[in-house]
Structures are given as C-alpha cells and as structure tokens.
Amino acid sequence: MKLLTHPTPIGSRFEAYGPSKLDEILRRFPVPEELAETIRLFSLVLPFRVNEYVLSELIDWTRVPEDPIFQLVFPQDGMLSKADEHALAKVATGPGRRAELPAVVKRIRQSLNPHPSGQLELNVPSLDGENLRGLQHKYRQTVLYFPQQGQTCHTYCTYCFRWAQFVGDQDLRFAVKEADELVRYLHAHPEVTDVLVTGGDPMVMSAERLRVHLEPLLAVDTVRTIRIGTKSVAYWPQRFVTDADADDTLRLYQQVVDSGRTLAVMAHYSHARELSTDIAQQAIQRILSTGARMYCQSPLIAHVNDDADALAELWAGEFTAGAVPYYLFVARDTGPHDYFKVPLSRAYELFAAAYRQLPGLARTIRGPVMSATPGKVIVDGTAEIGGESLLQLRFLQGREPALTGRPFFARHDRDAAWLDELDLLPGTPPDILGAVRSQLETKEDR
Ligand code: SF4
C-alpha cells in the first residue's frame, strides 16, 4: 500500500501547555472568573495538559462549561469534594500557608485512589527469576509493553486511570527504555502472539524512538499482531499528517504490515467531535493507507459521552472513517470517579439505545465492559427471572482461560458501578464466584 502524498501542512509544531500556561490560556479563552479559579485550584491536584489543536479546534468555547471536550480536559467544579476544595484553597491562597500546600496536595491525591490497578504489580511477568518491569502478561496471548519514552500524552483526560504517573507518582518506574527484555520474554513464551504497546501514549515518541521499540519485535516470528494504544489521533492528528516525522512514522507502520503482521492502532476516541476536523480524517486515512487497521475504544464518562445519541454518532463516525468501533469501557474508580461514573445498569441502557441506532456493519462495538482483575466482563443486559430483576453478565476474556465466554447473573442494583459492588445469584459456579471475589479482595484494576 502506497503512502498518501503529504498535503498542505496544517497546524504547527506540537507544544504541551501545562498548569504554568493556564493564565495565558484563560486570557485567550475567557471563562467566568469563578470557573477560572476552580480550574487554577484543582490543577494543583489533578494533572492538566492541553495543546493548541484541542484548545482551538476541539473545544466549543461558546458551550463552556458543559462542552464535552472542555469537560474532558479541564478540571471542573465537583471533581474534588467541598472539604478538599476548602482545604486546598486555604493553603493555596491563604496568607503564610503556602508551605503547607505540598502536604495537602499529597493527602488529596492519596484519597483519590491513585493506583486503581495494582495490575502493574499483579501481572508483571518474570524470566529466570527476575521480574520484568515494563511488561504485563495477564491474558495468555497478549503482552502489554510500556516504553519509557511513551509515558505521557498529547493532552490529559480528566478521567485518566493512569493520572498518578502524570503528577510525579511512580508508575513510570515500570516502564522500560528498550525492547531487549521483551524480546527475550517473547522467545521464551511462543504462546504470546500479540504485543500491545501502550503508555501514557506511545505516539508521543518520535518515529526514530518508536522504531527502537517496534523493530526488534519483527524478529520474533511468533508475534503476529502489534497493537499501539493511542489517543494521538484524537488529540494531535498532526502526528500522522504534518509533523516533521509523520511520513517516517507511517513508513514504520508500513514496515510492520509488510512483515506480514497485523498492525492495529487502538485509537481512544471519547466524542464524535474528535473525528470532526479535516486533519482528524486525514490522519485516519493516512494510517489506514499503510495497511494498518484501526480499532476504536473509550470509557463511558458522565459529562462527556453519557448520551445515547452522542455514542451512536461517535461509533457511526468511526465506522464511516473506515475504523472499527470496538469497546465501550466502564470507567475505573480513580481520580474524580464520582464525577464521571455511570452505574452499570444505566451504562447498559445507554449502550443499548446507541447500538440500536447503528447500521449492522457498525455493530462491532462491545460494551459496557469492565476491565477487571479476573478478566473483561461485559454487561449483556437485564432479565426478569422468577420475579426478580437481574443483570446478565459474561466474561469476554478471563485471566483463567476457562472463564472466557461464561455468563453469570447478579441482582439488579441500579447503583452498582463495578464488579465488586454486585450481588451474584446463589448457584453461581464456584470458579466465577471465586474470580469475582478476587476483585473484592484486591480492588485491583478498577
Ligand atoms: S490518553 Fe489515555 S493515558 Fe493519556 S490521559 Fe487520556 S486516558 Fe490517560
């Protein structure tokens, strides 16, 4: 497949705007002063990063604060409790109290469940008695790989489940500089056919740096699919169109495809707005022109995309662009989770209402799905059995392969928002019961 010719450059060089640029941003895009104060204050605790494209092209400033992309990127009133907000305000602005700020910030961050997964410890594989940091091996065929230089993003999502690493917490210690250990592990584990390169966002790396991580995988015959988890196509599509190394990046993609492997760009889109610009469409077409495939996924997030029409528009837009609508995830319990969470029952209703609007070929979307400790669990619907209202669930993927594909039932609790909040029916098979209880014990992966 030939690369497309480079179109007229649009946009500019990538530059990340962090909290130190907030005043400048809010001068250019004024919001009510009370909201500006909240943003300044909360960004002391929650990670904040944005770029020019998101500011100028994606956010509809006439609809602030309800605008979904504004909600996606800027800290909002309600993301911290009133008690924490007051404590923060006291030390951030109170006379002579500034020295207390770091301790207050740290306390609030700790209270926001900064390490929801624990999965980085739980799924770390070992080789020759040595733990291999920067890798996770949870499902038999798939290894996750965290390159050290890909542990940030072009813009931060306020709902990010890995937010702690963006505010200086230590998940980064799990990432690795080079692929040597991964390659050794893959040779020792021929059952692994898929490698998911993830982060942060690996597409923040230059083409040259990405090559250092991808090329060694092409020497491992048993690896048949390389997936790249990224939100760059939504947050900085210039990465594939006008960045200085956009063409080199696409040549690297093509090299992977030419090796006979499947290259899957696992694109994170939260809202149809992210597909609406010309450059967003060009980026998708350029990626697809290399022979790579695109699969799209997103969590279901209150204030951003908890609307059946918005979800249907997103999935239809992905399909029309030539990508595959893939997963609608349930948000994990971290950061401002109370602000963003959508209970499972409501999540299913939204999913079903959006799904019904899709043409048959776009019904590749699956959800709502919890990526939980024992595996991926989908809410398949509700049922009335013996006069009782039930939630119908199923393991899409099990850490224990025997769980995969197995259905089970829980009492229909309209407030339950995660697996460990469900009351499973008597008679649930012991291995399923045990797997779900393991979630309760570890609180992992939420
Ligand atoms: S793109 Fe993913 S890793 Fe990056 S901030 Fe958003 S949710 Fe987090």
From TrEMBL:
InterPro entries assigned to the protein according to its UniProt record, in alphabetical order: Aldolase_TIM, Lys_aminomutase/Glu_NH3_mut, rSAM, rSAM_sf
Residue span, Radical SAM core domain: 137-368
Descriptive protein name: Radical SAM core domain-containing protein
Domain of life: Bacteria
Cleavable signal peptide: none
Keyword Iron-sulfur: yes
Classification via SUPFAM superfamilies: Radical SAM enzymes
Cofactor(s) essential for the protein: pyridoxal 5'-phosphate
Organism: Amycolatopsis minnesotensis
Sorted UniProt keywords: 4Fe-4S, Iron, Iron-sulfur, Metal-binding, Pyridoxal phosphate, S-adenosyl-L-methionine
